[in-house]
Amino acid sequence: MNSDFSIVVDNQAIATITWNCEKKSMNVLSFEALETLEKLIDQVIEDKNIVACILTSGKKDFAAGMDLNVLAQLKQSAGENPAEGVFNGVMKMHSVLRKIELAGMDPKTKKGGKPIVSVLPGTALGIGLEIPLSTHRIFSANNSKAKIGLPEILVGLFPGAGGTTRLVRKLGAMAASTYLLEGKTVTPGKAQTAGIIDEVNEDPMTAARAWVLKATETDLIKPWDQKGFKIPGGTPYTPNGFMTFVGASAMVNGKTQGAFPAAKALLSAVYEGALVPFDLALKVEARWFTNIIMNPSSSATIRSLFLNKTALEKGAVRPKEISDQSVKKLGVLGAGMMGAGIALVSAQAGIDVVLIDQTQESADKGKNFAESHLNKGIKLGKTSENEKESILSKILPTTDLTALSEADLIVEAVFEDLKIKSEITKEVEGVISENCIFASNTSTLPITDLAKASSRPDQFIGIHFFSPVEKMRLVEIIRGKQTNNTAVAKALDFVGQIKKTPIVVNDARFFYANRCIIPYINEGIRMVAEGIPPSMVNNAAQMLGFPVGPIQLVDETSIDLGAKIARATKAAMGQSYPDDAVDEVIFWMEQNGRLGRKSNAGFFDYDDKGKRTGYWPGLRDKYPYSKNQPSLLDVQHRLMFVQVLEAVRALEEGVLMDIREGDVGAILGWGFAPWSGGPLSWLDILGTAYAAERCEQLCSSYGSRFKPPSLLLEMGKTGEEFYSRFAT
Fold first, then answer.
1. Which of 464, 522, 661, 676 does the annotation list as catalytic?
2. Catalytic residue check, 77
3. Which of 57, 298, 299, 514 is catalytic?
4. Of 152, 285, 476, 661, which one is the catalytic site residue?
5. What is this structure's pTM?
6. Which residue of 81, 380, 589, 725 sits 20 to 30 Å from the alpha carbon of 482, by its own alpha carbon?
7. Is 514 a catalytic residue?
8. DSSP string, 253-297
9. What is the pLDDT of residues 66-87, one digit of tens each?
10. Which one is catalytic: 143, 177, 443, 454?
11. Which CATH architecture has domain 514-622?
């Protein structure tokens, strides 16, 4: 029998089933463990000497969810009919949770059941909440660090073990939508207020024991098992329910543009499930869940956003021979937006930070940013006054470079200029210890070039944060030609400390992320110059699942920054520079003072509060709409392939060293169509043969930038998949 669940019966005849996965920091459910849980529940129900049962965890948290490797195994083990295998596996989960819910009751009278409750010491996510939802009462510890919710939608799934059906029947479709469609997680206190859990206690186990001993048979019957039950807010065929579902449908389509299949499937499961009795609703949920699991988009998303992401966070690409390189004292050079953000997340991780700037006022401003951020956290209940003071005490704002003498990692975040960065590198190396690693937060300048200013280029590395630092999950680590493994390990351990996801790439202009995102922006601008309406360009991108269209993205990042990057790139590339047509538009906008959102004037017009009011009419005057407009598919394929081909080239050239980093980096770094699993996963879904052929067509129609790389052509001849060839 699987050892993840164990049972103890005390002298009051209360059985306690404890979930404790060995050698894992969090509990996750496997099918072997599910079978064990079912046997223990059977024991509770059948043993006349047991009067009640408490489900809890032997860890500080309850559970993190399902072992998603299991879902892949379900498909593989089902042979010729993987859909049937998945459906049967999901229905097995439903049967176990329904057994908990009915707890030995007579099917007709609903009498004779035993109280089964759950006690959550901490976080309960996914199946870790679906199981408690099937129990008769949920008790949680008063743990402000705990997260309660059903975040499956964030990895391209939805709750398929009864969580969807139960939460809708418990809260109503409208109230449940926040947690189901957005994957929102909340503290136990807020979960209780919302009606997701029942009690929050300082001693939840004592409270649970008291409840099960006095619980009546009526207390055990869930509302949906009672005669006359009505879903809060109404079913789809009631006036209120009709409006709810119309609104939900509009909201889903408005937010996803039809690009995320899991959201649509979830809404279908909710709608159809609301029309039928509870047990049939579970079956509906299982069918739609199976539909999503069988969708290649889902498999790719799970692989990238769960399996690959987790592997990278756990050190999949870390040099194994290097001992722990955790950062004890960090020096941050530059207290602007990036530097201040890096200082904040580092201090939150318990790292002492020396925040350097040219003036004390500027350095203090960087620390004030951290204070302002933490004050917002206090208002939202995410942090406390004591935590705030503890974090702030770790940030030392100063102009004194000698304060860096004990630092073991430096992150330079000064102005994006080779000369300025070189000067500060030389200056700082004069005071830091000989073992200190020096990192640059550059987003475009080659690390090998920056390392020329260093007397120890083997200890020089790129650590590229994305803005805003406190929100963006990805950190791109760039290995220069002379960078040693200790520097790589140091960077990776630092990223682990601040709880972000790292990718490691070899040095090249624009590295990986910007190498792919800049062509996306440029292609959008090219299309505007060709007379394609900017609204069509942006909408086409959002229909692909991109959070922001390329034209809007230019405004958000500022047009003068784009102009600055263009001039620097052209100076470096000379005759091989490919983007003169794009520059024409960018430089014209710059000359007209249209610098983007920051100046309230860009491709869009803005009101006094900085809200977009529409596209700037002057753009159409300069670039009138063409009479012959391309198809939506052409626009979308141009936007997709111009990025994807750069990802293939990066892999081909050895800039990307691990295929997993290419996909995870794309989604977390710039929001590349998350439903696709990333650019390389998308090519596998599309088929390399078709992709190569389509690129040839685009190349013929729109230019050589769409010429398929040799690697894609080679793979296209046999239909070989990237994950078959490069999987680790």
1. 464
2. no
3. 514
4. 476
5. 0.86
6. 725
7. yes
8. HHHHTT--HHHHHHHHHHHHHTTS-HHHHHHHHHHHHHHHHHSHH
9. 877 777 677 777 677 888 888 9
10. 443
11. Orthogonal Bundle (1.10)
